[in-house]
Amino acid sequence: MPKKKIRKYRKRDYMGLVYISPWLAGFLLLQLYPFVSSFLYSFTDYKFFNEPSFVGLKNYIRLFTLDPEFYNSLRVTVVYTLITVPGKLIMALFIATLLNRDVKGIGIIRTVYYLPSLFGGSVAVAILWKILFMSDGAINNILNFFHLPSVQWLGDPNISVVTICMLEIWQFGSSMVMFLAALKQVPASLYEAASIDGAGAVKKFFSITLPQITPIIFFNLIMQTITALQNFTSAFVVTGGGPNKATYVLGMKLYTDAFGYYKMGYACATSWVIFAMVMVVTLLLFRFSSGKIYYEDGGDF
User: Fold this and answer.
1) pTM of the predicted structure, to 2 decimals
2) Which of 210, 238, 275, 293 counts the highest number of beta carbons within 10 A?
3) What is the DSSP letter of 51?
4) Measured CA angle at 139 (ends 135, 140), to 5 deg
5) Per-position pLDDT tens, the chain of length 301
6) Rounded to 5 degrees, what are φ and ψ at 45?
């Protein structure tokens, strides 16, 4: 190849690097550097204002053997995940099925259902949720109007975790949109053939609809599980981890250790435990889904 053309291609490659340099800078400084440094700090005694000192596995040993709050936070996080993820997916699929029809104004109705997800993770929404479910909030006022007893949504340890779960389930719009797109791709000929064979709506749903949209179900399951395991905002704003640390998820423990007690090294160890949980759960989901995810080309995952 002539040298002139080589210089031309090199110049084009360099210009490509220039164009993506903002992303590269953000990735290196805001993602890769914190990722690596937190791993290194997890093996140190780092008090935020002091120089870190290497302590080996001491933080991890203490976390698993000497910190009862860790196991409480782990239990709360697991309970939160087991309620939130299935609840959000079922609600999203149910609403997507209802909205998968061509009627007048359906676009506006879909937008209304999606709106709560635009504020997903928002502190303002969490504050609004807290106001609604306070002992003298709007929800209890509605119950009292119908002569029903008030519920301690935020004060009862057995109910408070369900309250923050409902906040996350309510924001099902993103999953709903993906389910709706998947439902649009299901061939109408399959439903017509099933109707000829005398299949009812329920039979069609479980025999045709669900198998056809398993890739999107699996994707939503993975993403929502990862999000739930890292939850922080709803627990912190709505209940503050209470009552009696009934909503004290691992994200809150990490925050408290880091910015409450300034134990940065210990908090980094907690963050890597959360990362390990996410990795293990994701790998298990991939493992157990093998052969159960079907694609249009007839292959399976």
Assistant:
1) 0.87
2) 238
3) -
4) 45
5) 555 545 555 656 677 778 888 888 998 999 999 999 999 999 999 987 788 899 999 999 999 998 989 999 999 999 999 999 999 999 999 999 988 887 777 778 777 777 777 766 678 888 889 999 998 889 999 999 999 999 999 989 889 999 999 988 988 888 898 999 899 888 888 888 888 888 888 898 888 889 889 999 999 999 999 999 999 988 999 998 888 899 999 999 999 999 988 999 999 999 999 999 999 999 999 888 877 776 665 555 5
6) -100, 100
